[in-house]
């Protein structure tokens, strides 16, 4: 899939003559793109955009972050993960400590529990969720061995590429 991404990126410039560039207001451009796609964006898309605004220093562009916050809270009003992201990305990272503290106070007052990390995979018709630090599954050691071997395989493939 990564190779496909590189190929498409290359084709945009070499085949279609479009020179890629970073737009001035990346967060706003990404927000406009997401709101105009033909499918309804899910919370994962909105969280990714919120995080991208932080990574790409778009904290000075208020519009997309406010809209993303609204969308996340509409879709998942009781998700502590969304609230923690909002507190950290929109407020704490830019020195708005009181606002960050207020959001975290809401989490505590409402009694929401923070889930550190969740990963999901789809196997056939079912979705399996894995929680960070959860060693309660009978074969958790086997999972770690499998992940280590996959990680080694990925490193080898990248080295050979």
Automatic annotation (TrEMBL):
Pfam families: E_motif. Coiled coil: none annotated. GO terms for biological process: RNA modification. One of its GO terms (molecular function) is RNA binding. This is Pentatricopeptide repeat-containing protein.
